[in-house]
Each structure stands twice: as structure tokens, then as C-alpha cells.
Recover the amino acids of this structure.
């Protein structure tokens, strides 16, 4: 805790103090979070728990990055909740896509990858006057945060692009006591907020805090607006009062019938203010993590001395990135080479690299997970359950990164250091630190191509932005947002008569009708069709005409482009128009098969947790009529014996014919805390939920369709288990008639195996395994004998080769073709020939199937004059390839087998050129 610029720890008035603690009570970060939520509960707001960092049903976002994300559909009018005021502390990540703070973290006072956004929201309830009054009371009242009002500044929208100056906000700030000289007017860039190109938008007011001249980045007293380090934005109040649409003449702003409020205040920033420090990293949200990072890396920085800034930044980075990684993995994100997993991997590896800069080359980052849990487990109790699993994921990534770095060092040579593009490939592919490569180039006397590196980096970032699947997507088309909700009756009926066509969509655009043969989407006011959700695919079936006899359209599936609106994917058999009346008829056979697999998924989830451990959590699923697929968190393959036990447990539940009980409209707190229901990964839950309970065996939050009892499943057969990614496994299974088909196939295979292996006392599968194992052992023996023959022949062919070596400026050079041997054998031959030469260069080449292999060996006494990598590089170019390696041994491949002999004849000339 940095209490004052003089370095003392006193929380009292002193000549150098940044904050007068007599006028403002010190609060811990946890207390600030709780006080904020408690204050707004007292103002009639519902306390809402943070949503996942993985945005639910929003492909436009890489990560949740603001408090309003989970309320987006509420603001758009696509979702209704049983409260009109809410307050939350939302976990956020900004480390990829449009909002990317990654490279700044650790080197500034206020940039973070992970942070918490405190916010209060009004959905058509109160507006500007109350929002401003609430904010001012919380910040300045001595009963709450007690901030000195003279340190606060406010901004309003000055008017721009056809929107008038926000005179209302100006007046309300005056009414709460803000002097006119501390209310500033800014343009649309700073004080006008929009959800997107279209949709809700409006002016905003920002509240700034004056940290004092001590915080100035210029070291002098400058007015508001001229010193970003001194005047810190702590709260943004967004006044949603317009709906923006695009017309032929340009954007059109229409006043909303029910204006709303969305505010955001960074917990880390307000903690910095209330704890009287200059940097967020000096608050108690970070200091325990930084201390733990010091312990784990063995590198302690003296807090009272302005020294070792680079080490201080590294510790901040480790602390920040540990928070981000812990929460991301806890929310289901895993390290990968694309999308969210790629960003997580970069965050983790950046933290690991800074640990290495501090001298710690052993895995340490996984231990930071427990420090994050200890500091934030009260506010986020899910961390207590997930920490062990998260730590294992981080440890696996640390170990993999260590192996990758080792490979990267082998790839680093003079050529890669001279080329910025090649250096960036090492940076991106192997995680080779940039400063490491810059230092290596300097030590070798090579100019590092920083411009080329930055160009390659920018190109990769552009490619990554383009490859992000959701990056170019927009919110649902307006045609869906303006529609009434579809009444779903499919839980109790497979047929709904007299449904009215609300809209028809073709190629994303609303149309008045679909003609026979056309593909499109039909939105109805009621339906029996289940829409894609929770891993269960939508129903298939038919839409019948009003006379109940002819099929109007064939339905291949259904989705929910907007919450509550069902879009049926159809091929029209005859013309169907908006306003028509149709009957929705679900394919019963398909639906029942899907229900068997979905209920089977719940049983499988519970059985996996029983056999493998409570760390097992769903990481994805797919349920359709033919099969079920279940992804879950686990770190090793599931043994055959474990799979059999899981299958036995699941089918035991099937045979028990336990009733499948569905409870609707259950408050989520009761569902999770009292009923013990498990939430499924990637799903979005409201305040009231649907619970599916199977006896005392399984209880989950689920909106899918299910069998009435487990006996209806018939039988479940596991058909596959494998890895999806690091720390995630996948089990596939079939049920009902699918299981019957699987058993029939198994019986047919057993019969064929019996014919193949003959009569035996063991099971056919074991007999076949034994026979295959014996054949494989025989093949290994034959391969070893063949390799020995090849090696003997190759050794004989080069036995006298040493005598044919040529003298090049006093260096013996031997070039020989050795077809028919493997690369490992070529390496042995190189060692033999170097031994016979005593001192010299050996070049061996081989061709097979149109491909060329080259190996160059240089005796140790010559590597200062001739490097194997440079020799093999020039020869490889002659055979259409490239390669590299150590100064004493290097390898290359090529694609022009016809050029091999010519390349070998030029080996002596290449060595001569290097000696010159």
C-alpha cells in the first residue's frame, strides 16, 4: 500500500499525502464492491451475479467486456425480466478484438486484461435525474464513499451530428452541487455511446477524479483535460434515449419510448481513488498477487525505491494475467490456436515469459491460480470449486510452452534474426520473446529487422481479426427484433394448429411471401418446434395448410435469432404469405430419438462426475436424433475400465426407469443453491429457470426436451472417447435404436473375428488383440532386421569413401550419395565418416519417392570457420528445399531428386566459398 508520495504507510493527513483519509474512509476492494451493490439494492435495484466471460448467444463479442453485455437483449426489447432496475459487478476481459489492452498491461497505471465493472441499470424505469443523483450520493456521501466533491469533475455531451447539447444532464449536475466551472462539454467521440451501427444509443456523462499534481505525467499543475494521468475517469453514465436506424438520407435517431440507463465504473479505478494510491496495481486488489509473484519467481522488488521498473512491470503483468487466465479457464475457455483460446494462450505465455525475465524458468504460473482464488473466492465462489482444474490447465500450458521454446531456440539462426518476417514466425509459433531475439542479434553483430517484424505482426493481427468467426457478424436483423414472441408449446404437444405467419425471411431480408421451391425462414406466433439451444438441435417436420391436409413447407430445423422469436428453416412446397395460418407438425420419430439422447446426456454427465471426479464439467454438447456428443473437462484419457463403469452406471439408471421431473419458473438462486442444479457451459440463464431432475442422480438447468422416464431411453452405448483440446475430452454415445444398431454391428464383427481366430476360450476381441499384437511384434522384428541390412550395406558402400575426400584450402570435404537409408541412419554414417576423416566436412544425400534428404556434418575443430547450417542451406536451394541446424550438424529436405547429384558435386565449392 503506497500511502503517500514520500513512501510512508500512514493513512492520515501528512504534508505529502495524496488523499485526506479523515474526509474519506479507507475501503478494501472487496468492501467497495459490496458497498456499491448494497447502495443500489437500497435504491430498489436487483443484485445480479456476473455473467460468464464467454458471451451467451452473442457472436459479435470475443469476451464479455462491459456490464451491459448480459442485459443487451433487455435493452433491445428482445428479453423481459421481472425487475426494471439492476446492479452488478461484472467480470470483463479486454485482450483481443476491438478492445485490446494486452500490450499496455504492466507498463501503465490503469490498463488490465481482466477487470471488474461496477454498474447500475434502468430498463425503462428511472432516467438522467435519478442516475446522476445516485452517482453523486454514492461518491460523495460520508455514509458511502465520502469523496471530496472538490476533486470531482463531470462531462456532458456538447451536441453533434444532429443531436442537441445535453442540457438536461447539465442542469441535473448543477442541482446535485457540481459547480458550473467543473462541468465540461465534449463531442460524440467521448460523450455519445452506441450499441452498434443501429439500435439503442444516446449521450453520456463521465465523472473524473483529480489525483492531484503528484500524479501528473508532466510534473506540473495543468487544468482538467490536459493531463490524463492526473484526472482519471472513474464512472460513465450512459443515457440510452434514441434508436438509431439507417435510411437512404443517412442515420435517423428516433426517441425511445422508454429511455434506459447503463453505467460502468471500474472497480480497480475506484479502489485506487479510495485507497489513496497512484496506480491500480498498488491497491489491495493486486498487492497480494504481486507479493505471491515475487515469492514464486524469487525476484523481490523494493517497493519504496523507484528502481528496477522493468522487474516491477513484469510482476504486475504476472498478477494481472493470472487473474485473466484463472477466470477465463474457469468460464470454460482453454488454450488453443484460434479464437478465444488463442487470446488466452497469449495471455498465459506473456505471463510465463515475464516470469522467465525475472529468472524463473520452472513452472510457476499455475500456483498463481490459488492466489487469485484466495483473493476473489468470496465474490466469486465458483473459483473455489474450479481452482484445481484451472491450475492443471495452466501447468499443462507452462510445460508445453517450455517445450515450444526449446524448439524455437533450435530454429533461431542468423537468417531468422536478419528477417523480421522469420523472427515474427518464431515469436508467434514458438513464443520466442522479442527482446530475447533482439539481444541475440546484437550479440551476434546482426542488425535486427524491427520494421519487418512489426509489418508481419500487423499482417497477422489483421488475419486474426478476419478469422474471428463473430468479428464481422452483426446483431440479429431488425426484421426479427421488431416481432412479437413465439409461443412455444412443444414441451407438451408435437402439433399446434392455427399458427399465424408473422414474418418470412429470405437471404436475411423480410419478404411478403415465399414461392414453391424457395428456401427461407418462417416466424410464427406459436409453434411446436424446438429451436437450437443447449446443444439440442432444432426439430424437423412440416407446416400444413389451414385445411390441415396439404404440406405448405418442409421444416429442416429451427433457431432463435432473437430471444423468444422462433425462425423455422423451410423449403416451401407452395406459396406461403405473411398472415397465413398453418399447422406446425413435428416429426415425432425424430423428436423422440433426440429426447432419448438428451436425457442420456444428463445421465452421462452425472456418471462421469461419479467415476472421474467432481472436477468434470460440461465444455460443450451436441444432441440430435442419431447420437449424443458430450465434451467435458478432464486431463487424461478415460481408461477402458472407467468407460465400462460409466456405461454400467448410466444403463443402471435407464433400467431403474426413474421419472424425469421438470420444474419450471424456478428462481435461479433456489435452483443452484437449494436444488443443487448444475449450469451448462455456454448457456444463458435468466432470473427464473427450468430444472430437469432425474431422481437423486442428476439435477441440471436445462431448456431441452426429455423423456418422461429413463426407461424410455432403451439402452445407452458409448461408442467413442478422445481428446478435443488440452484438458477437454469427448465422449460419444447412442441410445434407443441407435444402440441396437451398434450392438448388431458388434455381433457381426465378433462373428467374423471368431471365423478368423478360430475356437478359443477368451473373448473374440481379446483373441483378435492377441493375434494383432503378435503380428505387430513380428513386423517390428522384420523392420529391425531390414534396417540392420540397410545400414550394413550403406556402411560398406562408404567404407573407403574417406579416401575420396577432396582437399579444399586445407579442409577435407567428402560428399556421398547414400540412397535407401533412413535419416537416423544417415546421421550415424555422418558420425562414422567424421571419425574417419578426423577433421573435415561430410555431406550425405539420399533420394526416395521424389524427395531429397541432405545432412552435413562438420568436425568440432572447424565450426568456427565452416558452419553446417550454412553449407546445407546453399545445397538445399539447389534441390528445391531449405534447412538448418547446429554449426556441427544440419539437415535439409528438397523436392527435386534429379538435382541431387549436381548438388553433391558442388559441395566442395560451397565450402570453399565459406572459407574465403
Amino acid at each position: 500500500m503506497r500511502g503517500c508520495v514520500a513512501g510512508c504507510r500512514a493513512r492520515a493527513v501528512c504534508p505529502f499525502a495524496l488523499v485526506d483519509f479523515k474526509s474519506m474512509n479507507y475501503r478494501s476492494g472487496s468492501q467497495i464492491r459490496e458497498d456499491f451493490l448494497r447502495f443500489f439494492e437500497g435504491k430498489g435495484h436487483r443484485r445480479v451475479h456476473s455473467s460468464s466471460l464467454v458471451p451467451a448467444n452473442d457472436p459479435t463479442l470475443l469476451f464479455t467486456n462491459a456490464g451491459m453485455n448480459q442485459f443487451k437483449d433487455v435493452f433491445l426489447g428482445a428479453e423481459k425480466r421481472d425487475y426494471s432496475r439492476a446492479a452488478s459487478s461484472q467480470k470483463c476481459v479486454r485482450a483481443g478484438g476491438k478492445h485490446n489492452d494486452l500490450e499496455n498491461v504492466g507498463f501503465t497505471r490503469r490498463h488490465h486484461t481482466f477487470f471488474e465493472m461496477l454498474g447500475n441499470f434502468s430498463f425503462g424505469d428511472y432516467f438522467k435525474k435519478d442516475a446522476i443523483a445516485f452517482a453523486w450520493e454514492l461518491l460523495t456521501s460520508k455514509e458511502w464513499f465520502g469523496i471530496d466533491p472538490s476533486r470531482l469533475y463531470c462531462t456532458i455531451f456538447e451536441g453533434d451530428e444532429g443531436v442537441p447539447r445535453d442540457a438536461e444532464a447539465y442542469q441535473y449536475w448543477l442541482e446535485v452541487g457540481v459547480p458550473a466551472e467543473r462541468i465540461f462539454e465534449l463531442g460524440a467521440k467521448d460523450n455519445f455511446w452506441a450499441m452498434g451501427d443501429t439500435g439503442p444509443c444516446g449521450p453520456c456523462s463521465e465523472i473524473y477524479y483529480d489525483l492531484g499534481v503528484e500524479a501528473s505525467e508532466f510534473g506540473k499543475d495543468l487544468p482538467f483535460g490536459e493531463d490524463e494521468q492526473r484526472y482519471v475517469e472513474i464512472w460513465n453514465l450512459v443515457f440510452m434515449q434514441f434508436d438509431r436506424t439507417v435510411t437512404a438520407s443517412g442515420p435517423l435517431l428516433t426517441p425511445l419510448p422508454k429511455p434506459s440507463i447503463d453505467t460502468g465504473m471500474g472497480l480497480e479505478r475506484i479502489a485506487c481513488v479510495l485507497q489513496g494510491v497512484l496506480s491500480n496495481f498498488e491497491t489491495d486488489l493486486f498487492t497480494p498477487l504481486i507479493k505471491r509473484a515475487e515469492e514464486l519467481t524469487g525476484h523481490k522488488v523494493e517497493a519504496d525505491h523507484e528502481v528496477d521498473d522493468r522487474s516491477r512491470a513484469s510482476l504486475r503483468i504476472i498478477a494481472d494475467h493470472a487473474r485473466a487466465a484463472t477466470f477465463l479457464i474457469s468460464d470454460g475457455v482453454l488454450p488453443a490456436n484460434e479464437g478465444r483460446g488463442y487470446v488466452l494462450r497469449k495471455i498465459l505465455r506473456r505471463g510465463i515469459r515475464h516470469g522467465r525475465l525475472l529468472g524463473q524458468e520452472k513452472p510457476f504460473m499455475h500456483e498463481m491460480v490459488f492466489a487469485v482464488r484466495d483473493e476473489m473466492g468470496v465474490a466469486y465462489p465458483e473459483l473455489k470449486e474450479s481452482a484445481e482444474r484451472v491450475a492443471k490447465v495452466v501447468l499443462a500450458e507452462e510445460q508445453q510452452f517450455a517445450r515450444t521454446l526449446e524448439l524455437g531456440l533450435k530454429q533461431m539462426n542468423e537468417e531468422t534474426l536478419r528477417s523480421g518476417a522469420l523472427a515474427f514466425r518464431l515469436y508467434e509459433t514458438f513464443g520466442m520473446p522479442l527482446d530475447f531475439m533482439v539481444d541475440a542479434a546484437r550479440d551476434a553483430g546482426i542488425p535486427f529487422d524491427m520494421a519487418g517484424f512489426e509489418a508481419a505482426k500487423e499482417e497477422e493481427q489483421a488475419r486474426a481479426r478476419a478469422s474471428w468467426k463473430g468479428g464481422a457478424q452483426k446483431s440479429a436483423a431488425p426484421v426479427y427484433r421488431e416481432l412479437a414472441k413465439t409461443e412455444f408449446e412443444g414441451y407438451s404437444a408435437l402439433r399446434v394448429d392455427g399458427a399465424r405467419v408473422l414474418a418470412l425471411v429470405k437471404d436475411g431480408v423480410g419478404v411478403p411471401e415465399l414461392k414453391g421451391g424457395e428456401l427461407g425462414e418462417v416466424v410464427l406466433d406459436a409453434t411446436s418446434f424446438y429451436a437450437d439451444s443447449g446443444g439440442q438441435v432444432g426439430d424437423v417436420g412440416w407446416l400444413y395448410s389451414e385445411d390441415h391436409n396439404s404440406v405448405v413447407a418442409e421444416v429442416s430445423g429451427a433457431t432463435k435469432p432473437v430471444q423468444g422469436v422462433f425462425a423455422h428453416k423451410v423449403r416451401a412446397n407452395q406459396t406461403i404469405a405473411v398472415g397465413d395460418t398453418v399447422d406446425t407438425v413435428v416429426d415425432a420419430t425424430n423428436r423422440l430419438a433426440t429426447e432419448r439422447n438428451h436425457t442420456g446426456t444428463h445421465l452421462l454427465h452425472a456418471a462421469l462426475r461419479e467415476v472421474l471426479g467432481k472436477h468434470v464439467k460440461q465444455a460443450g454438447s451436441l444432441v440430435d436424433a442419431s447420437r449424443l456428443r458430450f465434451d467435458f473437462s478432464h486431463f487424461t484419457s478415460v481408461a477402458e475400465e472407467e468407460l465400462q463403469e460409466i456405461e454400467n452406471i448410466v444403463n443402471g439408471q435407464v433400467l431403474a426407469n426413474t421419472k424425469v421431473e421438470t420444474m419450471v419458473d424456478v428462481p435461479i438462486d433456489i435452483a443452484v443453491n437449494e436444488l443443487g442444479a448444475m449450469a451448462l457451459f455456454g448457456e444463458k440463464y435468466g432470473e427464473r429457470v427450468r430444472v430437469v431432475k432425474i431422481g437423486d442422480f442428476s439435477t441440471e438447468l436445462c431448456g431441452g426436451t426429455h423423456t418422461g422416464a429413463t426407461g424410455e431411453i432403451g439402452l445407452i452405448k458409448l461408442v467413442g472417447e478422445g481428446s478435443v483440446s488440452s484438458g477437454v475430452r469427448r465422449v460419444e454415445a447412442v441410445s434407443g435404436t441407435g444402440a441396437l444398431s451398434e450392438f448388431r454391428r458388434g455381433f457381426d464383427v465378433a462373428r467374423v473375428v471368431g471365423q478368423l481366430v478360430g475356437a478359443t476360450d477368451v473373448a473374440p476381441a481379446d483373441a483378435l488383440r492377441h493375434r494383432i499384437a503378435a503380428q505387430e511384434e513380428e513386423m517390428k522384428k522384420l523392420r529391425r532386421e531390414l534396417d540392420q541390412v540397410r545400414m550394413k550395406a550403406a556402411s560398406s558402400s562408404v567404407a573407403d569413401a574417406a579416401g575420396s575426400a577432396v582437399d579444399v584450402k586445407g579442409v577435407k570435404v567428402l560428399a556421398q550419395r547414400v540412397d535407401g537409408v533412413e535419416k537416423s541412419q544417415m546421421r550415424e554414417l555422418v558420425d562414422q565418416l567424421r571419425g574417419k576423416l578426423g577433421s573435415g566436412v561430410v555431406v550425405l544425400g539420399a533420394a526416395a519417392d521424389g524427395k531429397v534428404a541432405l545432412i552435413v556434418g562438420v568436425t568440432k575443430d572447424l565450426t568456427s570457420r565452416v558452419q553446417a547450417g550454412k553449407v546445407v542451406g546453399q545445397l538445399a536451394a539447389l534441390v528445391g528445399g531449405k534447412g538448418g541446424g547446429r554449426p556441427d550438424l544440419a539437415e535439409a529436405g528438397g523436392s527435386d531428386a534429379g538435382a541431387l547429384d549436381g548438388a553433391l558435386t558442388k559441395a566442395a565449392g560451397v565450402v570453399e566459398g565459406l572459407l574465403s
Q: What stands out?
A: The chain has 25 helices and 35 strands. The first helix runs from residue 29 to 41. The first strand starts at residue 46 and ends at 47. The two ends are 63 Å apart (CA to CA).
